[in-house]
Amino acid sequence: MVANRQSQTVLITGASSGIGKVTCLYLAEKGYNVIGTSRASSRLGDLYSEADQRGVSVHGLELDINSDAEVRRVMPEVFNQFGDIHALVNNAGYSVWGPVESVSIDEMKTLFETNLFAAVRMTQSVLPGMIERGAGKIINISSILGRLATPFNGVYAASKFALEGLSESMRTEVSPLGVH
After folding, report:
1. d(C-alpha 111, C-alpha 124), whole Å
2. Of 16, 38, 143, 159, which is the active-site residue?
3. Residue 112 and residue 59: Cα distance in Å, rounded?
4. Which of 38, 143, 156, 159 is catalytic?
5. Is the pLDDT of residue 147 over 90?
6. Catalytic annotation, pick one of 32, 38, 159, 160
7. Which of these, 24, 29, 25, 5, lies nearest to 14 by C-alpha position?
8. pLDDT value at 75 more than 90
9. Is-catalytic flag, 48?
10. I want to staple 92 with a disulfide (CB 3.0 to 4.6 A). Which of 14, 74, 88, 122 is the partner?
11. Could you confirm whether 160 is annotated as catalytic?
């Protein structure tokens, strides 16, 4: 990202807690214009409170990243309000623990919807603008389990292995276009 951080907008999914919340606060403190998403705006209260305590501003956005229709509806409003998205942090995710034999196919599909397909959906929503500008960053938050699976984490590890593969492929596709 360039030196003029106030003009740089970063969109972070899964901002209501954990890595997403901390990333929102850190980047806001560094001067970036930060948009943090959550499936329910009611879950963003802690983010707002902590931002107020630190004397920074973050913009919360209710967005179900698992819904094609909602992303198609909301993202044009985001572009209208904030302009270009300079960086996307695909952070939202969760885990299903247990032996693969005990995890239903529906549970697996839901996990992959959040951990993989939502990242693709969000990337597809911001990538055209980044390519047009010849600049942008997409950061996919993964896990060591995306490289080294352990027992009772097979379903989660599979979703993170898929995200790692997607990220590696996409890196070589878009870096010649100025997107990293």
Report:
1. 19
2. 16
3. 27
4. 156
5. no
6. 160
7. 24
8. yes
9. no
10. 14
11. yes
* 125 catalytic residue (yes or no): no
Mean pLDDT of the chain: 95
pTM of the predicted model, to two decimals? 0.93
88 bridge partner residues: 11, 138
124 neighbors 71 (Cβ within 8 angstroms): no
Query: Distance between CA atoms of 66 and 86, rounded to whole angstroms?
Result: 22
Catalytic annotation, pick one of 125, 142, 143, 159: 142
Question: Using alpha carbons only, what angle is made at residue 178 by residues 174 and 180, rounded to the nearest 5 degrees?
Answer: 60
- What are the CA-CA distances from residue 125 to residues 28, 87, 115 (Å)? 23, 12, 16
pLDDT in tens, 91-111: 999 999 999 999 999 999 999
**Is the pLDDT reported for residue 2 higher than 60?**
no
